[in-house]
Amino acid sequence: MIVALAGGVGGAKLADGLAALLGGALTVIVNTADDFEHLGLPISPDLDTVMYTLAGIANAETGWGVAGETWSFLDQVVLLGAPSWFRLGDRDLATHVLRAAALRSGQNLTAVTAELCRRLGIGARVLPMSDDAVRTIVHSAEGDLPFQEYFVGRRCEVPVTGFAFAGIEHARPTDAVRETLQAKELEAILVCPSNPFVSIDPILSLPGFRTLIAEAKVSVIAVSPIIAGAAVKGPAAKMMRELGLAVSPFTVASHYRGVVTDFVMDTADAALSSAVAGLGMTVHLADILMRDRADRRRLAEQCLAFARR
After folding, report:
1. N or C: which end of the chain has fewer CB within 10 A?
2. Is the confidence at residue 309, as pLDDT, over 90?
């Protein structure tokens, strides 16, 4: 059994490659600190991106949302005076409506996600990191912003000064997450090429989560989301610059020091191998850019080979 930690488009892509190889032997633990409520509906952006990608219905152009989307609902709610900054498509809306109804009936997010995955025909297991509410807050020169307001509403244009995870001190990994990381069959943990600050940090910041990883006594392999000084997708590189950090795989590896045993970075960054190895990590070089599903599978195969070496 392999566990992947993921959030966002990059994480979903590698999870998709792993799922193609492992099927039900893969468990994806997904960031839920991006979750928020919009128009009275509970939205779980990272969970939905992972689910849609694993189901093969994600919008290939954006990486998020559903392919072949229509926007009649959004057009109508805007006509009636609702805000349009967060776009809910008609097909995507079905997920949020059903999630809302299930949560109101007393089900937790883990159970709701399992049922949605079953209906979508997903073989891998997808787990929210927690059933407790955690919300990412972006610190900026303009004050504190809820993550979705920063990410979608402000399009990441506001310079960041740091991050906080509201509610993290009271949140816990779910029983399903705990049991998965304690399973005797666990072979390795993969940290997908997701944003280290806002996709992976919320997972690692859950009280007790790092202890679960340490006690698993398996390789923990992280894939860099940075290639040759740029982020493949999303605001990770911009955040690094604004925090006064070098936009480099070495910065990502340093951020994961103490958790990660192995680090996978692109061959374009081979000159940094010695520096990353100096952090106490085994370095693996590969072509980590995932242009299509064949690339996702190829990188997944390489990561599994690194884990089993």
Report:
1. C
2. no
pLDDT confidence band for 196 (50 / 70 / 90):
very high
Pick from 92, 53, 51, 48: nearest CA to 70: 92
Q: How many domains does the chain have?
A: 1
249 in Cβ contact with 226 (< 8 Å): yes
Instruction: Provide the domain limits for residue 26.
Output: 2-308
**Cα gap 53→59, rounded to integer Å:** 8
pTM score: 0.97
Instruction: Provide the sign of the torsion angle of the four alpha carbons 77, 79, 84, 90, taken in this order.
Output: positive
Q: pLDDT tens across 36-89, in order?
A: 999 999 999 999 999 999 999 999 888 889 999 999 999 999 999 998 899 999
> Is the Cβ–Cβ distance between 16 and 53 less than 8 Å?
yes
Q: Which residues contact 226 (CB under 8 A, 6 or more apart)?
A: 232, 236, 237, 240, 247, 248, 249, 251, 252, 265, 269
Q: Rounded to whole angstroms, how far apart are CA atoms 154 and 296?
A: 30
Q: Which two tokens stand for residue 92?
A: 């995507």
Q: What is the pLDDT of residues 283-295, one digit of tens each?
A: 999 999 999 999 9
